[in-house]
Amino acid sequence: MMDALRRDVRYTLRSLRQSPGFALVAVLALALGIGANSAVFSVVNGVLLTPPPFSEPERVVHLQGNVAQAGLKDISLSVPEYVDLATLSRAFESVAAYRGGNLTLTGRDTPQQLATVVATPSFFATLGMSPVLGRAFTEAEAVQGRERVVVLTDTAWRVHFARDAQVLGQTMQLDGEPYTVVGVLPAGVAYPAWAEMYVPFVPTETQRQDDQRGARFLSVVGRLKPGVTQDAARTDLARVALEMEEAVPSRYRKVGWSFSVTSLDEKVVGNVRGTLWLLLGAVGFVLLAACSSVANLLLARMAARGREVSIRAALGASRGRLVAQFLTESLVLSLAGGVLGMLLALWGTDALVALVGEALPRASQVRLDARPLVFTMGVSLLTGVLFGLGPALHGGSREDLSVAMREGSRGTEGHGSGRMRAGLVVGQVAVALVLLVGAGLFTKSFLALRAVDAGFTPEGVLTGKLVLPSARYPDAAHKVAFQRELLGRLQSLPGVEAVGVTNLLPLGGRSDSSFDIEGRPQAPDEVWPAVEFRAVSPGYLRTLRVTPRQGHLLEGDGTEGPDAPWQVVINKTFADLYWPQGDALGQRLKLHWDTAQWTTVVGIVDDVREWGLDTPARPAAYYPAAKVPTPFLALAVRAKSGGSPEALRTAIEAELRAVDGNLALYAVAPLTRLVDESISSRQVSALLMGLFAGTALLLAALGISGVIGYSVAQRTREMGIRMALGASRTRVLTLVLGQGLRLTALGVVLGLGLSLGLARLLDAMLYGVAAYDGWTFAGVALLLGTVAVLAAWLPARRATRVDPAIALRAE
Amino acid sequence: MMTNDTKAAASPEGAVAQEDAGAEPGKALIHLDGLTKVFETEDVETHALSNIHLNVRKGEWVAIVGPSGSGKSTLLAVLGLLDTATRGAYLLDGRSVLDLSATDRALVRNRHIGFIFQSFNLIGDLTVFENVELPLTYRGMPAAERKQRVERALEKVGMAHRARHMPGQLSGGQQQRVAVARAVAGDPLILLADEPTGNLDSKNGEAVMQLLTELHKGGATICMVTHDPAHARVATRTVSLFDGRIVQDEQRR
Amino acid sequence: MPSPLISLRNVEKSYPLAGGRAWVLRRIDLDIQPGEFVTLMGPSGAGKSTLLSILGMLDVDWTGEYLLDGQAVHAMKPKARGELSRRTIGFVFQQYHLLDNLTVAENLEVPLSYRDLKRGEREALVGDMLDRFQLVGKKDLFPSQLSGGQQQLVGIARALIANPKVLLADEPTGNLHSQQAKQIMEVFQGLNRDGTTIIQVTHSEANAAYGHRVIQLADGWLQGA
Known about the structure:
The structure holds 3 protein chains of 3 kinds.
Chain A: H1 2-18, H2 20-49, E1 60-67, E2 72-75, H3 79-88, E3 92-106, E4 112-119, H4 123-127, E5 133-134, E6 149-152, H5 154-161, E7 171-174, E8 177-184, E9 197-200, H6 205-208, E10 219-224, H7 230-247, H8 249-252, E11 257-263, H9 264-304, H10 306-314, H11 319-356, H12 370-395, H13 401-407, H14 415-451, E12 461-467, H15 476-491, E13 496-502, E14 512-513, E15 515-517, E16 531-536, H16 538-543, E17 548-551, E18 567-571, H17 572-578, E19 588-591, E20 599-605, E21 620-624, E22 632-639, H18 649-659, E23 666-670, H19 671-678, H20 680-714, H21 716-724, H22 729-762, H23 774-800, H24 804-809
Parallel strand pairs in A: 4-9, 6-8, 16-21, 18-20
Antiparallel strand pairs in A: 1-2, 1-10, 1-11, 3-4, 3-7, 3-10, 5-8, 6-9, 7-8, 12-22, 12-23, 13-22, 14-16, 15-19, 17-20, 18-21, 19-20
Chain B: H1 12-18, E1 28-40, E2 45-57, E3 61-65, H2 72-79, E4 87-92, E5 95-96, H3 102-112, E6 113-116, H4 128-138, H5 143-156, H6 172-185, E7 190-194, H7 202-217, E8 221-225, H8 229-234, E9 237-242, E10 245-251
Parallel strand pairs in B: 3-8, 3-9, 6-7, 7-8
Antiparallel strand pairs in B: 1-2, 1-4, 4-5, 9-10
Helix pairs in contact in B: 4-5, 4-6, 5-6, 6-7
Chain C: E1 6-17, E2 20-32, E3 37-41, H1 48-55, E4 63-68, E5 71-72, H2 78-88, E6 89-92, H3 104-113, H4 119-132, H5 148-160, E7 166-170, H6 178-193, E8 197-201, H7 205-208, E9 213-218, E10 221-222
Parallel strand pairs in C: 3-8, 3-9, 6-7, 7-8
Antiparallel strand pairs in C: 1-2, 1-4, 4-5, 9-10
Helix pairs in contact in C: 3-4, 3-5, 5-6
């Protein structure tokens, strides 16, 4: 038995060596199917299916506000709103509020920014995270003057303390203040995923005021009481909203005030879920294509070896022995494909995480998963076995042996298996078409986004961020002085054309406010959309080369300080919305901001896509940073034409050190990269779809080539007859190519049908291109047709070289 | 009847001497001179045909006989331009055809040669009509003329009523009659038949021989490979091959 | 009288054809004794090859009775038939039917691999056979590297390696030159002298002369039986 097996393996290896093309294609197809599937499934599994490492994470929900009339959906909450929610609601075991921030760690070689979550003490219990070392901070520490404690994530512990077990009680200089480390979280536990450490949130007296209800900067999470559903929580919060409306009618009445409840999972992965499922679907199609490719190859190969089967059977091989021999071959192939596929999966998972890691939440949770590997290998094995055995079983039946032997050298293929192979090719073409359509649509989306006029010129601009700690920059005067000093120094650097600061760079997120227009009282039931406001230095819009349309950009050089006149530049959308007559210049408006004053519109600029390239511009107002000083500064420096912005980095950092040696510039990047990153997930989708589509196309081409090649081999005699009757080579070529094109046409029709059905699902993920984009569909069909002709061409040429004398003698 | 008076002309000079110019009956339609075909394998060189000299005149019916492996089928393949020779000359209707390009060979086969095979070699996916029509379509003949020719040929072999059938629905004898119709539909210069009765029982075999006899009487030139001495005797001339050489050339009438 | 090795009674084969049946073999009664060298002759299409296929159990779609080595083939299940075939039948084909991707030695080993033999035993048998047919020098060559005569020699060696009682040969010299054909026929003659029963199909009177008895078939009927 072992002996027979050894012999079968030996023959298999040799026969595979003798047809390396077949072996290579089969193994590659299997490996691609197994590898791509396992990699993508591992990512999906890690991101979508693996729960976050909290206790009972399904009970954790995000709580956000909605002001329906203002078109504000899922917005943050203000301190009074959070307090209302915490005291009035009954559905939650605990609620917590937090905001993101950056603290600068000093006292080391260079200052470093740490991504910090400023959270209420209830944060840890609400999410279900407990420290491995020490403790979380307490209510007693969330008090003015006692809040200098910090809880580290595992990452921060590793990076800044080299996992020092004695870390508890040590002091960190953060924004110039000493903080005591009280706890460390376990590895892999962090929320939000970017958090490096946690400090207590202590609301100021001002923030607690009722008139600060519009200052919404808190993210709020809640832990549902056991047994309470999300729907029950919604009902509970609807009641809370109603009570708030009654308590503070001026703010909440008739504006459509409500709370939304979102599961943690949805919040974290909601954005990427569609893309990941899509990839999984695409990769499933690739597996389908790979399996049918292998099936096709095996069918062809086994059929071509009908003669061998007949001879072996005539020499006394039982059906069992024949089956064993061909099973060995199938298994050896599947095994080789599996091993290669496993390597591909290992590499592919890493590559995929590297490629999309930035955009992926829980990327750190992604591991190559054994289950999909086992599953896909199983599928491939089954394919191999199923299609490898059919012919052996069929060929082993003795009834047609005498016929087979007399027919001589060539094997015969039953009509059934021929039709099945043709069907498989049609399916492969259809699958390739579906994937190509997807890739085409995504690519067009991506290109359309790239072509969007962002309203500014990112080329040549370097950006970076910094945060002014409130301890050393307690008031507007300090902050303005810092800006003046820094901007002045940077402006005078050789190689710098323009420089500016803002609170938020384009594509960087939102910071909005409600507002009043002078002489235009808001009707009681009227709510204007919030205006996107930016606090910028006068040079900022020039640095970004935002085009003025009317009036002028902000005046001065930002050094005027608090005494400078109030002025504002608005964007075209804002102007068109409220002053359609074109008389916006000179009007005055006032933000709902504690220090805000009536401000004159001095200029109107082109729309800048502040929220993202795929989001239409909203009303925006650019205020002098000196008037709205914030601790969060983003720097934009334009290099002189021809100069590289990256080359300026060292000089910029040197100037910053000269101004304040305890500040760190972080997130330094050319503006072009920020633009690219804002659409990188679309690029990745397009790239991956393209990759999968390319694979499927390759498999389809191999399939067509294989089927035609095999059919040419099978029809050698027919070709011989035709040539004996005087068919020219062109005739024979046309005949064979026609066969390939017929299969392709069928596959294209089937694929177009499938694509039309599936394209609807893509609609939400597309930009600037319709799901039923005629050009994409036509282009893809044309591409497939061309590939099919090329794929059929090679075997077709072989048909023209049939030697009629030999073909006919082979009887 | 069994006269043995005329040895076939064994040299081109003979052929020229015998013939005068012009397309009258008796002209050498096929002229082979020193034709040799060698197959080579690893350590053996097999002479499938050795130094064949043969002239076939218009209207002749030549039976090519010999044991298995004697080269009969190879000779027929060379005559039909399905195969080329290693050495020697082959003039078909006065024109040298050995060094033609593949395309020209296909053209000559299509216009001037009709094949009848032992295993019929009809194309299974085409109807009887389409099978007979096939060589004519390669000629680029208009559909109306093709139809007329195909019908005439099928009538000639008594298969007109089966025009729409598929080959698989016919018996062997019927398939061979269709194959004969296909061979003659294009009015070829010569008919080449490779064991035309080999796959048939005696009754159907006789019927096919009868058909060939009628074609011969109608003026067709036929070269036929056969195993069967009885069938060879129906022909007007018998060429015997052994180990690739002509060992006997016997002419009747 | 010794019992015949092969005994056919009323064996018939036909297949349906539009409007009736086409007969390939009709009412074949035939006895072949152990040690005979029998030649089946007849025109093409007479049914010779079909009869040989039935004798070799390659063709099982027929009616009648067939006793081989005392066993009723017509009543056997496929598995038992396969077993009997492995033990008693060796086949030689006109087209040799060697496996192209196996060497000469491996081709010889194929029939043995379908029996329960130890590797040593198999190698010994293959070695014997290579010696006997003077193929030792060619044992590692592939069929395509051999002449037709040599290939057929390997075909015969392969047919004999499992020590069958009957050797069935279908036009074994059909693809060979007269010189090679003669050599093959002499091999058959020698085998027959050593006790192997041989049944051959041939067109050649010369080949038939090597046998003891000629059985004529025509249109599916045994002639002069």
